[in-house]
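Students often ask why inverse folding is considered easier than folding. One informal answer: many sequences map to the same fold, so there is more than one right answer. In these notes we will look at a single instance of the problem. The structure comes first.
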């Protein structure tokens, strides 16, 4: 428990210490924000800071910080380090600067921001890439909650899938304050209750857990095929760094009356998500310690832990928190997808008819991905793996866009350059070594990953030198 306690304190201190550093580097000021200048009572609506925080937290806290952390815990105590250092120095910085850049550019969507700083060709690729990712998010974040709701109510999961998808449609089409702004704070409280309940029980039970002093050995049962680097860094995304988050931040950038809200909303929400991921990584470590590594179904692990530790009522509330988190990420993923298309095609979104023109094809394609994920027992796992890699790859593009922005603004770009280089190596190496990708040897994969870092670094400084000239 010493390692867990130190990691928990480190995350909290990260918000107050490094979060302040990142804020100072960016330099928020008193300028008029898009929420005020472009208020349309649909997507641009000034909201209270606490409400924006709750919405942002639920937007980014899908299944990732729970299921991803549980899967990552199989790799051993190395998962704690990645959650802490990844969250403080990469993920929270990534979310904060990306959100603030959107605010500085009138609430611009992520592909627009990336295109603005990495080129128009990159923007076109990112529009397609991000749209596919958003639809995959919505598809993979349906079946998990539906299964948990079936367990809680005995109502068939297909009925819940229909209800959840119907909710997706409403939340995507209606003004942000009519559904999302009203129900998200309630959902966020349930998710936070779950995390706090598990946190308290960890200390009450005080289980004997592996410590960092025991070493960082890979304890995964498939360690030979799944090395810690880079597999663990893809498995634990939302609790450390996630490109998906930067697609959600523009929605909140359109609701902030002051730039000073940025650190508590963007950086703070990511730190809270990191805490949730850390709690579940430790709880899962305890589960694997007691039951072995045979169980891989995260839903079963969540149900077992909450039932044993929180009792019937507590487990019910906790499971509802797990249900709400992915649902609320799925609906805002589709809403973000609508905004990305609208921004790209320069279509106004004040009328329901204009929103439907964009949403109908999005709903049809998402439904197709959902049907595929349900039609084959491996369908969900395949979509989840591709979603995970695309998610982290999107963070790479966002980090490089942030680095270019900070360089042009003559600010300390080192805060994003180092994470950009690291995540570039993670994603390239994963593409080479993962069983579902090229599945090359570790020697070749690591060599190509290292080469990608060298090429990226040379390209960046070559661009920077020409910039001065």
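Output (designed amino acids):
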């Amino acid at each position: 428990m010493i390692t867990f306690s130190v990691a928990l304190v480190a995350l909290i201190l990260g918000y107050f210490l490094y979060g302040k550093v990142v804020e100072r580097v960016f330099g928020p000021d008193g300028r008029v924000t898009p929420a005020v200048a472009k208020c349309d009572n649909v997507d641009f609506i000034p909201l209270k800071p606490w409400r924006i925080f709750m919405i942002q937290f639920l937007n980014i806290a899908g299944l990732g910080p729970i299921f991803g952390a549980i899967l990552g815990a199989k790799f051993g105590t190395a998962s704690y380090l990645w959650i802490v250092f990844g969250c403080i120095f990469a993920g929270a910085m990534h979310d904060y600067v990306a959100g603030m850049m959107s605010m500085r550019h009138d609430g611009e969507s992520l592909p627009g921001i990336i295109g603005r700083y990495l080129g128009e060709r990159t923007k076109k690729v990112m529009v397609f890439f991000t749209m596919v990712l958003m639809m995959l998010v919505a598809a993979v974040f349906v079946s998990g909650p539906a299964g948990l709701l079936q367990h809680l109510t005995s109502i068939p999961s297909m009925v819940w899938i229909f209800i959840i998808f119907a909710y997706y449609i409403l939340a995507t089409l209606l003004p942000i304050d009519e559904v999302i702004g009203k129900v998200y704070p309630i959902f966020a409280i349930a998710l936070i209750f779950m995390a706090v309940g598990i946190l308290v029980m960890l200390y009450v039970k005080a289980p004997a857990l592996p410590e960092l002093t025991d070493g960082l050995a890979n304890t995964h049962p498939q360690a030979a095929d799944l090395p810690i680097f880079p597999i663990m860094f893809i498995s634990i995304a939302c609790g450390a760094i996630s490109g998906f988050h930067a697609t959600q931040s523009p929605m909140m950038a359109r609701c902030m009356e002051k730039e000073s809200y940025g650190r508590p909303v963007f950086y703070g929400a990511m730190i809270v998500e990191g805490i949730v991921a850390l709690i579940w990584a430790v709880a899962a470590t305890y589960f694997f310690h007691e039951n072995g590594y045979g169980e891989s179904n995260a839903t079963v692990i969540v149900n077992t832990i909450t039932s044993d530790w929180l009792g019937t009522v507590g487990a019910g509330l906790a499971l509802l928190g797990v249900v709400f988190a992915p649902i609320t990420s799925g609906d805002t993923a589709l809403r973000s997808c609508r905004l990305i298309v609208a921004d790209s095609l320069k279509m106004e979104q004040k009328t329901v008819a204009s929103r439907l023109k964009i949403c109908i094809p999005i709903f049809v394609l998402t439904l197709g991905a959902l049907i595929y994920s349900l039609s084959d027992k491996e369908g969900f796992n395949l979509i989840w793996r591709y979603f995970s890699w695309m998610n982290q790859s999107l963070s790479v593009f966002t980090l490089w866009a942030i680095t270019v922005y900070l360089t042009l603004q003559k600010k300390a770009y080192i805060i994003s350059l180092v994470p950009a280089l690291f995540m570039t190596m993670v994603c390239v190496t994963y593409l080479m070594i993962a069983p579902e990708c090229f599945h090359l040897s570790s020697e070749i994969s690591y060599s190509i990953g290292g080469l990608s870092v060298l090429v990226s670094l040379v390209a960046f400084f070559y661009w920077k030198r020409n910039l001065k000239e």
